Amino acid sequence: MDNLPMQGLRIIDFSHSWAAPHCARILADFGAEVIKVEYVRRLCLLRGAKKEKTIYNSHPGWLQVNRNKCSITLDLKNERDKDIFRDIVKISDVLIENSRTGVMDKLGLGFQDLTKINNNLIMLSMTAFGNTGPYSSYAGYGAVMEAIGGIQSLTAYERGGKPARIRELDITNGLAGACAVMTALLYRQRTGEGQYIDMSQLEAGTHGLIGEHLLEYVMNDSQTLPLGNRHWKFAPQGCYRCKGEDKWITLTVRSEAEWSKFCEVLGHPEWISDPLFATRVARMENHDLLDRMIEEWTILHIHHDVMQILQSCGIPSGEVIDVDEIRNSVHLRERAYFTAEKSGSGLLFMGMPFKFTRAEGKVHWRGPELGQHNEYVLCQLLGRSQDEVTPVKDDDIGTAFDPE
Amino acid sequence: MTNKALSALRIIDLTQYIAGPYCTKLMAGFGAEVIKIEQPETGDGMRRLGPFYKNHEGLETSIPFLWLNTGKKSITLNIKTVKGTEILKQLIKNADVLIENFSPGVMHSLGLSYETLRDFNPRLIMTSISNFGQTGPYRDYKAEEIELQSLSGGMYMTGDPEKEPLSSGPALCQYTAGKHAYIATLMALLQRGKSGNGQFIDISIQESGLEHIEITLSYNLQKGKNAKRGEHLFVPWDTYECQDGYATIIAMPSRHWHRAAEIFGDARLFDKKYLHVLDRMKHRSEYEALLRPCVKAHKKKDLFHAGQTRKLAFGCVTGLDEVIESPQHKAREFFVEIDHPSVGKHKYCDAPFKMSRTPWQSDRAPLIGEHNQEIYTEIPGYSLQEIQQLSEQGVL
Q1: In whole angstroms, what is the distance from residue A151 CA to residue A162 CA?
Q2: How do strand A237-241 and strand A195-200 relate by DSSP bridges?
Q3: pLDDT tier for residue B2 given thresholds of 50, 70 and 90
Q4: Which residues from B are below 8 Å from A138, CB to CB?
Q5: B-chain residues within 8 Å CB-CB of A144?
Q6: Which of A164, A366, B39, B42 has a CA that sits 20 to 30 A from residue B65's CA?
Q7: For residue A1, what pLDDT is reported?
Q8: B17 to chain A: nearest residue by CA?
């Protein structure tokens, strides 16, 4: 087997929370050496709100989002640590950070400073609102950009209903970050030149999810969404209750041919030509009634069976699966999707979001313990002496949730 | 041309609808030559789906098509004819990347499997996007966005616990798969730059979509915990009703939460017994009951700015009308006007992110077959007369 595509690249992950660390995770999964720079006095929020018994080293969210990464602890307000940071930059290809706009510059670690010590560095800033503009100093988590960006307004049970959050803007934006890094790396491979990327998570999320809906609004002065679980053109489409507690099925009928098959499978061939449902437009108009009639059938069956019955006649249908059902999915198992940590711990992880033929992404190790790679980075990568490695002191540790 | 990140790359784009086209839209915006291959007369299914500009149904007026295909070239080719397949092979021979999202098995049945194509272009990277991947028992299952969401776990986690699961309005799973396709293809190109070898990439939209719930799913895989839709773990971290809509109230960064006392006025919210997020989680319902009327008393934009000027990550739910007028978007020129022969000039979102050396470029979507002459006179090198003939025969 060949190497993984990112092998040989070193990436600094100076970021916290979810979106930017997710970006770095994808790059680590496919072979990059990712060094996560952590601040002991304020741990990443995925390390949780408690510090007793080093519980911050074992939250599954942390283990997943930071898998395959190294951890080094630095305090960038301290000159010695700042030097170490610069030394790591010198031997790295990419720096990913998500501090508030201006913080890196204030530390003397802005792109202009760093490019002097590594002239083909790629630096990606993933701020909430971008480096310029009236909101540039504002902070955000996924929930903020989703709301301000107009994304949230498009999901609700009905027009005018309470807008619901979707899952998950941090992934949308983390992936946009990875798109940016890969774009810059390909350009650098051709020209040798690095560059700076100013990513506004507000813009990346908007571009990556609702560009078509904004264009519709601009062009038609109207909008199709939100529509609950319905489709704006196909009917019926919905989410229907099945046998069991909180079990549901989704289905979509996209054509008259599918409608006929659907009616036959449900044992109601008389619906096919019933004027209430005979055309797509009629079905749209009588959707509420139709939903009740469909649910009279689905409620009698297990969601998985409904899916198989409908799929066997080519009608799109999906059981609404929870995480237990995902873990037990026969399809995912047959695709060898899940993967155990390579260290032999037996700890189970999600697999890779895509498969290459030349080499397979692996979970070599879980999200690192705090400062687990201090010695590796300082001594092996930077050639500093063992004396410079200082153990993490329990008293110094603070969480992202400390009230002050 | 050298200041485009992806110039010199030629992409053969056999994709339709959302996932593939979003991937190749990104490639085109960063400078790759994207040749979109469309079925003669009908084209990309998205051209026929709409919604349409001013509700004028037609191949050149589909709004999502106009958004998803900016900067590409369009040629028509009936790949289900022998001649069509032959022409496609010549195009692929001269390309760096082939991206397709047919149902699994279709490329093979056309004699266009990766194993065949690699023989005459070993540098080729072939990216296949499908609903459930190229293998496995669900391989041939049909799905629209709502089914993709229901089978990748995000939908079960969305909406109210006492109602049915709610699917996302935006086509979340397809857009996420589009980004994965972009990342994967560029990774393979990066590797090819060193090794000279291409490869095949299998993208299952379902597996790609599982990433949306990576944290929840990891708790299940490692601790056996199941999860339901409903509230956020932390308190407060939610959307609350206010005077004129909805505001997002997040008690983060935690060390600044005490400053919200100036906004909400109710000192009880900042009582010692609610000081830590763990305390607030313990008293979730009573805390939310205190908070709700405090939020309700304000206007959404006032809360957004009042929070943010105190370093708190507050927000508010904004409608599309307000987004278009956003001062932040205006200041950063996030919208750009693009002209198109069938629908005229309109504002589109511009770059997904701003690159200092290799900026994004926005160009309009192509008309169906607009680039037939430009491409086919080069590859395979047909005369105008031959192009005309093949067009009449239904090949182009």
Answers
A1: 13
A2: unpaired
A3: low
A4: 308, 313
A5: 248, 250, 313-315
A6: A164
A7: 62
A8: A212
